[in-house]
């Protein structure tokens, strides 16, 4: 596990401040933001998945190879908040996601990420909790996503919106450094490798998977390599 303390906050803040952030300026894509919310967690608190399979799977293929799609045994120490989206949503239903959404008129990425965090999880945090921004990630579905790294300051009390979120998990940052992570596969639709981030008993794909990989590389390991060249699976292109 990784300790949730001031040293971690300062180290991540310094790495984000020193990073030459890559931005994407594409007028044909809409702008969106996601919040990478860093919180504390207890070992074993997410061992029992509260979401019945039929409530979220939404026709999504189970990854196989010993995986059953459940987010279990992931908590402990410094963690980030990961949401399982409701299966009835019009887009990207039943997928794993960070809190976030499109920018409203006049908003910047930080304002949008904090607003969406409040709307989706009932957590209101001020601008002062923002540690920095990761690279923009352009998606196949027509967005440029800006990830905003936020220091939650503890465990936080979560009140997920049932219209958008089936369940929210505190996933330990140590999960991002598993020996079997990241994974890459090829698809006939693209020459770019599709990235997969194993978490619990499931695989997280881009764009969320790409964001989480940069959290590992930059925030935890100080590696500024890009992730925008990593492909998304075809089911995420819509």
UniProtKB/TrEMBL annotation:
Q: Which CDD domains match?
A: NUDIX_CoAse_Nudt7
- Reply yes or no: does the keyword Ion transport apply: no
Cofactors demanded by this protein: Mg(2+); Mn(2+)
Q: Which residues form the Nudix hydrolase domain?
A: 29-195
Q: Does the keyword Hydrolase apply?
A: yes
Alphabetized, the UniProt keywords read: Hydrolase, Magnesium, Manganese, Metal-binding
GO terms of molecular function = coenzyme A diphosphatase activity; metal ion binding
Which Pfam families does the entry mention? NUDIX (PF00293)
User: InterPro entries, alphabetically?
Assistant: CoAse, Nudix_hydrolase, NUDIX_hydrolase-like_dom_sf, NUDIX_hydrolase_CS, NUDIX_hydrolase_dom
Q: Which family does it belong to?
A: Belongs to the Nudix hydrolase family.
User: What name is this protein filed under?
Assistant: NUDIX hydrolase
């Amino acid at each position: 596990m990784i300790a949730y303390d001031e040293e971690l906050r300062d180290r991540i803040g310094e790495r984000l401040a020193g990073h030459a952030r890559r931005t994407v300026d594409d007028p044909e894509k809409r702008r969106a933001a996601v919040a990478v919310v860093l919180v504390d967690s207890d070992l074993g608190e997410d061992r029992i998945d509260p979401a019945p399979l039929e409530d979220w799977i939404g026709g999504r293929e189970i990854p196989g190879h010993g995986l059953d799609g459940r987010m279990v045994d992931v908590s402990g120490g410094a963690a980030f908040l990961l949401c399982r989206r409701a299966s009835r949503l019009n887009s990207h239903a039943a997928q794993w996601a960070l809190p976030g959404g499109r920018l409203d008129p006049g908003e910047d990425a930080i304002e949008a990420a904090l607003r969406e965090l409040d709307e989706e999880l009932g957590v209101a945090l001020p601008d002062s909790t923002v540690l920095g921004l990761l690279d923009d990630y352009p998606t196949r579905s027509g967005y440029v996503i800006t990830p905003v790294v936020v220091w939650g300051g503890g465990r936080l009390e979560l009140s997920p919106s049932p219209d958008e979120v089936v369940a929210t998990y505190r996933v330990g940052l140590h999960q991002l450094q598993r020996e079997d992570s990241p994974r890459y596969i090829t698809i006939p639709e693209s020459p770019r490798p599709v990235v997969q981030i194993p978490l619990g008993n499931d695989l997280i794909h881009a764009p969320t998977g790409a964001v989480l990989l940069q959290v590992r590389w930059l925030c935890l390991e100080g590696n500024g390599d890009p992730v925008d060249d990593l492909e998304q699976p075809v089911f995420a292109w819509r």
